[in-house]
Structure formats: C-alpha cells, structure tokens
Design brief:
With 441 residues, this protein is an alpha/beta fold. 45% of the residues lie in helices and 13% in strands. The strands form three sheets. Strands 3-2-1-4-5-6 form a six-stranded parallel β-sheet, sandwiched between helices. The chain starts with 6 loop residues before the first strand and ends with a strand. It is an enzyme of class 1 (oxidoreductase).
C-alpha cells in the first residue's frame, strides 16, 4: 500500500478544522488551508475559532506532534498533498433555495493550478447532486498538463457537539470514486478508521453526493413528522411526548430524531432540504421531493406556535411584557446560531414589542453580533428577575437543572413555555408554575 498519504484540508471552518485536527491525531501529516489569514493564525496558535467539546485539546495535541500545520498558500498545498479534502461551505444563496457553490469552485480552481504529480481531490462539502461531475471537468481543465489529478466524493455526517467522535468513529464511510486507484487512495487516507471495523460504502460520484442530502432530508422529515403529530395533539388534547415514547418502542421507528418541540435549525438541515428541493426541480423530479417543502413548512409553524403560546401566557398581548428566552444556539453544546429556531422566536417576540432577554451559555457573542437589537445574558436566574414569561428554546443542561422554586422567587409571574419538552412538567406545576408545552394539554 506504500507510505501514508499526506493530506491537505482546504477550508478550515467547522467541518475542515475538525477533519484536519482528527486526521493529524490519527497519525497523518496534515496541512490546513484557508483564504482567511485570521482563521489560519488562530488555528496555528492553538485556538479553535468555534465551540466544540474536546476539539481544543486535540488541536493542542496535533500541533505538539508536529503533524499539523496551517497555511493560506495554495501553492504550498499543491506541493505538499497527495490527497486534498475540499471542506469549504455551501451556504444557501440569497433570495433562492439553491446552494452557493462559489467557494467550492474557487477552492478546486486554486488548488488545481498548483497540483503536481498524481493527486486525489476529495469533495466533502454538501453539494447538489451533479456538482462532482462538473468539478471533475474543472479539475482536468485547470490542473497543469501531465499532472494526474482525479476527483472523488466523501460526504461528511458529523454533528455539531459530537464532531470529534463522529469523525474518529463514524457510523460509515462513503467513497464516491471513478477508479480503483482513487478507492485505494481513500482507503489509505482512512486506514485507522477502517481498521476499527467501520463499514465502507464504495459507490459512484452522484450516489455519494446524494447520500448526504438523502440522510439529512430523512432526519428533517422524522423531526417534522413528530411535530406534525404535535399539531394534531394540540387539536385533540392528546400528549405528543407520550405519543413519541410509544412510537419509539417500535424498532422500525426508533426514538432518535423523534423529539418533538421547536424543530430543527442549524447550518445543515434547513438549507440542505431547500437546496435538495431546488436541485430536484432543476432535474425535473421536483415532485419526488415536494414533501420536503411541507417538512420545512411544519418546522416553521412550530416557531410561530411557540410565539403564540408565549402570547397566550402573557395574557393575549406581548407589548411591554418581559420575556426571558432561555437559549440562542440552534441546539445545546454549540455556539452556532445559523437558522436557530431560538433566535427566530426571540426576534419575533421582540418585534411584537416584548422586552426580551436572551440567555445562552455559549452563543451570546455570535447572537449579539448578528442581532444587536436584543438584550443578552449568560445567567438565567439573574435574567429572569421580574420576568412575565420564561420560554425555554434550547435545551442546555444548565436550563434543565433550574430549580423551579428558586426561579419562581425571582420572576414576576410563574409562567413558562417549554419549547423543547426539556423540563419536568409535574415538578414545575407543583412549584406553582403555569407550564405550557407544544403538543401537550
Ligand atoms: C446535522 C446531521 O445530524 C449531521 O449528520 C449532518 O452532517 C449535519 O446536520 P447538526 O446540524 O449538527 O447535524 O445537528 P443535529 O444534531 O442533527 O440537530 C439538528 C436540529 O434538529 C437541531 O436544531 C435540533 O434541536 C433539532 N432536533 C434534533 C429536533 O428538533 N428533534 C430531534 O429529535 C433531533
């Protein structure tokens, strides 16, 4: 099999930084590349520019080992690497559902110019199906004559908050390749992970691209399914938490991603289902995934319904009411506020005239930068002083552990909306709170 390949990771955002650090910890020589000199400088000095449990320790270890370096130079990347991972972002375009591929195109173009000798370029970014075929042409057109460059696809399934574990011990590896050589290179680049017994699915480029969006669409659909049942529960007096528990004991359904509440957000699920819808329409198979529009719609309605519950508890009007919003991040153990349901709700309450204080253990700096009009705090008890309604929007452990008696002593009214079914309703009601939750009587 020859010596271990030398790896570059192009794009050191969330996905790329995690991948680069983990690969170095697994024993590869890795070069992280980014066009943002500030990001590169921070990573090179041992600072992870985002919140991810366990990652700072691994970065220190990787830097100490001498196996991980960072650069802004694509020339250096081309000279250094045998296998190049493309990990740049593919955000939603402004004013459209389509994915913005300018960063992917730029990364492949810049890298291709500097490739020497045989090299494998591996796409990891989430892209519309068909992108890899187009990038293959771009690569061959741009790489110097005689440089043997091939493209492969290796989708990434890591979850924020569990990124290290998901990278070091993934459920599966998916390799989209067009040659035995590319497959052999990828197997060499993941040898320690494969040695643990991780299943490897080797397939073609379009299938590999599709696996990612198909997986995220399924997960989004599962969440919206139980949230649709919550809407039905609300109309019938049934309890969606009991319903979800009963469904979860059916092995064919399972309990994971069946948690009802405020719904999904983040940098992946919402944008991926929209980009998928858009791409399917371009391909003439829009009808096949038309249900994803409804999945998105159900998800958006949960946000509106949460605002309605707060308004009801506040006595029918929001103007001038003091609201304590627990949570800003799109989920716990993250400082990511991209498409965060929590901040969407907080901003709607604020726009309706409520006096909103947003509490979050990690996401306040990001939230403040994006929405300076809101008031922020990191301590829930201090923030809740004099509050008319408390609303739990992100289920951080700190919020689950709040003592309803202690918080009850500082608020003006003991009223709480539990947007994530994270609190013990009996305990809160016993402590004198008017407790409301989506999909529960
Ligand atoms: C997701 C996918 O899980 C991952 O495989 C992919 O690579 C990237 O997108 P991530 O965005 O980190 O990962 O978050 P995830 O843990 O999947 O949660 C997504 C959203 O769904 C969160 O807002 C969460 O609060 C919500 N959610 C999740 C629910 O509302 N109910 C659930 O049962 C599960």
């Amino acid at each position: 099999t020859g010596p271990a390949p030398r790896l570059t990771v192009i794009g050191t955002g969330y996905l790329g930084a995690t991948h680069a650090i983990c690969m170095a910890v697994l024993g590869y020589d890795v070069l992280g590349v980014d066009v943002d000199p500030d990001k590169i400088e921070r990573l090179a000095s041992g600072e992870v520019p985002f919140f991810e449990p366990g990652l700072p320790e691994l970065l220190a270890k990787a830097l100490d080992s001498g196996r991980l370096r960072f650069t802004t130079s694509f020339a250096e990347a081309g000279a250094f690497g045998d296998v190049h991972f493309i990990c740049v972002g593919t955000p939603q375009q402004k004013g459209s559902y389509a994915a913005d591929l300018t960063y992917v195109d730029a990364a492949v173009t810049e890298l291709a110019r500097h490739i020497r000798g045989p090299a494998l370029v591996v796409g990891k970014s989430t892209v519309p199906v068909g992108t890899a075929a187009r990038l293959t042409e771009l690569l061959h057109k741009t790489a110097p004559a005689g440089a043997d460059a091939q493209l492969a696809w290796n989708p990434e399934f890591l979850r924020e908050g569990y990124a290290v574990d998901d990278t070091l011990r993934p459920d599966r590896l998916v390799f989209g390749t067009t040659s035995a050589w590319a497959e052999e290179r990828l197997r060499a680049a993941f040898a320690p992970v494969i040695a643990q017994g991780t299943p490897v699915v080797v397939t073609d480029l379009p299938t590999a691209e599709l696996v990612k969006v198909a997986a995220n669409s399924f997960l989004a659909t599962k969440i919206s399914y139980i949230n649709a049942m919550a809407e039905v529960c609300e109309a019938t007096g049934a309890d969606v938490t009991g319903l979800a528990t009963a469904l979860s004991y059916d092995d064919r359904i399972g309990g994971r991603f069946l948690k009802p509440g405020l719904g999904f957000g983040g940098g992946c699920l919402p944008k991926d289902i929209r980009a998928f819808t858009h791409r399917a329409e371009e391909l003439g198979v829009g009808q096949a995934v038309a249900f994803l529009r409804e999945v998105d719609g159900i998800n958006q309605r949960r946000r509106a319904r949460t605002v309605d519950l707060v308004r009801e508890l506040a006595g029918g009007a929001l103007a001038g009411r003091r609201i304590t919003a627990l949570g800003a991040a799109f989920k716990p153990n993250s400082d990511d506020i991209r498409d965060a349901p929590a901040l969407d709700v907080a901003r709607t309450l604020h726009a309706a005239g409520a006096v909103v204080t947003v509490v979050d253990p990690a996401a306040v700096p990001n939230a403040r930068r994006a929405y300076p009009e809101l008031t922020y705090a990191t301590d829930a008890l201090a923030a809740a002083a004099g509050s008319d309604v408390v609303v739990l929007l992100t289920e951080w452990a700190q919020f689950r552990e709040i003592d309803p008696h202690v918080m009850g002593d500082v608020v003006a009214h003991r009223r709480i909306v539990d947007g994530r079914h994270a609190l013990d309703s009996v305990q809160w009601r016993t402590a004198g709170w008017d407790y409301r939750a989506l999909g529960r009587p």
